[in-house]
Amino acid sequence: MSFWNSARKKLASLLDPPKNTLHNSTICLILSRFKLRIGWIFEQIIGIRTNLPLPSKWEIFWQILVYFVIEDYFNCWIHRWLHTKWGYEKIHHVHHEYGAPIAFAAPYAHWAEILILGTPTFLGPVFVPGHIVTLLLWITLRQIEALETHSGYDFPWNPTKYIPFYGGAEFHDYHHYGGCHSRNNFASVFTYCDYIYGTNKGYRYHKSLLRKRDDWKPHQEDED
Ligand SMILES: [Zn+2]
Ligand SMILES: [Zn+2]
């Protein structure tokens, strides 16, 4: 018996991983089980594919484009509702604490707003289910877009300048600047919804004033 016990101890000492490794492995195991469950939920209920083959680039492109358009449309209307007296005072005022946003202001919001505005993120995948890789890429791109839109930087070399109807930092900055009185630029990604529903008139007027100022400056310098 003592022979078996000592043999087992020797073997166990060889196989025993360091405590940290064991701890990390346990976390990884729990997370991977959790991920598998999430994958199963998406596969069974929504119809998201989690197996091979991987989606083509074209499939990823058009599905993510559809997800952006669907989310933008619903977010625009939900955001308008959040600017009603009740919606603003109870929920949306937290996000508007940043009159001039920074990237970290993107997720800074009331928990109810995160839930409400987070829902349209999944409407696209529900309406047009694709592959789990597409879903993860979509969520990643949407997060990057939110950080960029709230960054407060409007770089002229930004690749997003080539995306048609893209709002960007300047577009959303104008919305934050208005605070509780803001009635412009409700859409989160594109500009066309606010154009169609006439909720960009103040912004367009502001832009026209800026253009006039820029046109006027050189003449002013000539006279000097
Ligand atoms: Zn707002
Ligand atoms: Zn914002």
From TrEMBL:
Lineage top rank: taxon: Eukaryota
Keyword Transmembrane helix among UniProt keywords: yes
Annotated GO CC locations: membrane
UniProt entry tagged with the keyword Ion transport: no
Keywords (A to Z) from UniProt: Membrane, Transmembrane, Transmembrane helix
InterPro entries documented for this protein: Fatty_acid_hydroxylase, Sterol_Desaturase_Related
Localization, UniProt: Membrane
GO biological process: lipid biosynthetic process
Pfam (any one): FA_hydroxylase
Fatty acid hydroxylase domain: residues covered: 65-199
Principal location class: membrane
GO molecular function terms listed in the Swiss-Prot or TrEMBL record: iron ion binding; oxidoreductase activity
Family: Belongs to the sterol desaturase family.
Protein name as catalogued: Fatty acid hydroxylase domain-containing protein
Protein's organism: Acer yangbiense
Organismal lineage: Eukaryota, Viridiplantae, Streptophyta, Embryophyta, Tracheophyta
